[in-house]
Structures are given as C-alpha cells and as structure tokens.
Design brief:
With about 270 residues, this protein is mainly α. The chain has 14 helices and no strands. Helix 3 packs across helix 14, helix 4 crosses helix 10 and helix 5 crosses helix 8. It holds the Pfam family BPD_transp_1. It comes from Vibrio albus. Its main location: membrane. Keywords: Cell membrane, Membrane, Transmembrane, Transmembrane helix, Transport.
C-alpha cells in the first residue's frame, strides 16, 4: 500500500515537472533549428546547452520591453490584490455581523453570482469601460478583479464562525462594525487572507482574456499579453518564448515560496476545524 502511494505521488510529480523541465531546457538552447528538430523527443527534456542568450534577447528586445511589461504586471497585481483583500473581507464581515435584516438575501445574491460564467460578463464590461474612457489604462485592469463573490464567501465562512460573545464584548466596549472588523476580524483571518492572496495573485498575474481586450500598447500591457507577440512572426522562436515564460514564472514561484507556510497552515487549520 505504501509503495502504491509513493508511486502515485512520483507519477503526479512527473506530470507537473516534465513540462517545466521542457520549458527550462528549451529556454537554455539558443539554436531554434535544434529546438524544432528535438521537439517531441526525449532531447526536449534534457539540456544539451547552457546558454543565456535567449534571456538576453528577451530582456533587451526594444520592440517588446520586458522590464516595462514586468512593472505593469507587478503594479496591477499588487494594487488589485490589496484592494481585493480590503473590499472582500469588509463585505464578508458586514454580511456576517452587520445589523441589516437583508444580509442573508445579499449573501444569497452574491453566491448566485458564482453560477454566472465569467465570459458572459466580458462584453458588457467592455462596453462600459469603453464608454467611460478607461480603455488602455491601469485602472481598467485593476477594478474588474477587485470584488469577487468566491472570496467574499470564503471570508464569510470564516467570520460567521467567530464567537458571538467576542463580537458582543467588542460592542460593549464601544466598537462600531468597522472597528470590530479592524481589531478582531482582520487579525484573526490571516490564513484566509493568505489563501485569497495566492488565488488572486495567480488569477491576475496570468490573466489574458481581459487585458488583451482592453490594452493597446506596451505602456500598460501585462506580461501575459506581451508574450503572445512572440507568436506573430513567420517562425516562432521557441527559445525566446520559453525564456519569456521562465522569467514570467519566477515571481510567481518566489511569491508562493514566501507564503507557502501560511498557506499550508490555513489548509491544515481548516481541516482540523472541519
């Protein structure tokens, strides 16, 4: 039984690691002819050369300024992440402990939003931002991702389980709803914040459909959209594409390594509570 578990674990790890190995291997090969010749064979996964030429081309390309794209993506993701944590956590706390008698109806409406496909909202949103002149700006890439029904639900599930005596004690001490959230709700919800931060970070960093519809030039364009420019020529330079992909993935890996301890703690904590 233990052997079978190890076998499954190793097999799943290989499924995840093999594409990454292929990406890194191709990014280190400066010869596109060799890359095309080895594509689909075992040589695609074994480095035969260790050149950083593709990375130099990606960073120094005057037509596709990687540094600018990286700044755009980091700025959009950071601002959107901060706003998302603030808006969704406060909305959830108000739904959990607010005094409005319509709280349950509002929560039901928010949960119902989860059943609506995101793609069906793209066209109405595009028409709205076009009318108000937000196309090709940072703001148009930040605002649509701030409020998230799933994140509100996650926070609500946590806040609704806080001891009622604790909330009542805060009211006795003269705390209003926001002060109670700031001093009790938010500090206790760190595990949920970490989970939401990871999910939101990945969603915004890798977002493609919305940015490609609302951006026109490199001034505000993110990495995910900029990468598609490498496929527009007569022959795709796979070495450059993979080098771009590696550079784009590094910040995500670093971010996850920083917060993984809190992420694991949130998962195990939820399991224990369940």
């Amino acid at each position: 039984m233990k052997f079978f578990k190890y076998f499954i674990a190793i097999f799943l790890c290989l499924i995840v690691l093999i594409p990454l190995m292929m990406t890194v291997t191709i990014s280190l090969n400066p010869n596109n002819t060799d890359i095309m010749a080895n594509m689909g064979s075992w040589k695609s996964f074994v480095p035969t050369s260790f050149s950083l030429e593709n990375f130099k081309k990606v960073w120094s390309d005057p037509y596709h300024p990687f540094g600018r794209y990286l700044f755009n993506t980091a700025f959009i993701t950071t601002v959107s992440l901060i706003l998302s944590l603030a808006v969704n956590s406060m909305a959830a706390f108000a739904l959990a402990w607010g005094e409005s008698k319509y709280r349950k109806y509002l929560l039901g409406a928010i949960i119902a939003v989860l059943a609506i496909p995101v793609e069906s909202l793209v066209l109405p949103q595009l028409l709205i931002v076009s009318r108000v002149g937000l196309v090709d700006t940072y703001l148009v890439q930040i605002l649509p991702g701030v409020a998230n029904a799933f994140f509100i639900f996650l926070f609500y599930q946590f806040f609704s389980k806080l001891p009622k005596d604790l909330i009542d004690a805060a009211k006795v001490d003269g705390f209003n709803l926001f002060k109670t959230f700031w001093h009790i709700g938010l500090p206790s919800s760190v595990p949920v914040c970490v989970t939401v931060a990871i999910l939101h970070f990945l969603a915004i960093w890798n977002s493609y459909l919305w940015p490609i519809m609302v951006t026109r030039g490199p001034e505000v364009r993110p990495l995910s959209v900029a990468m598609s420019a490498y496929f527009s020529g007569n022959q795709t330079q796979w070495g450059n594409v993979m080098a771009f992909a590696v550079c784009m993935a590094v910040p995500v890996i670093v971010f996850f390594l920083i917060v993984q301890r809190h992420f694991v703690a949130s998962i195990t904590g939820s399991a224990v509570k369940g």
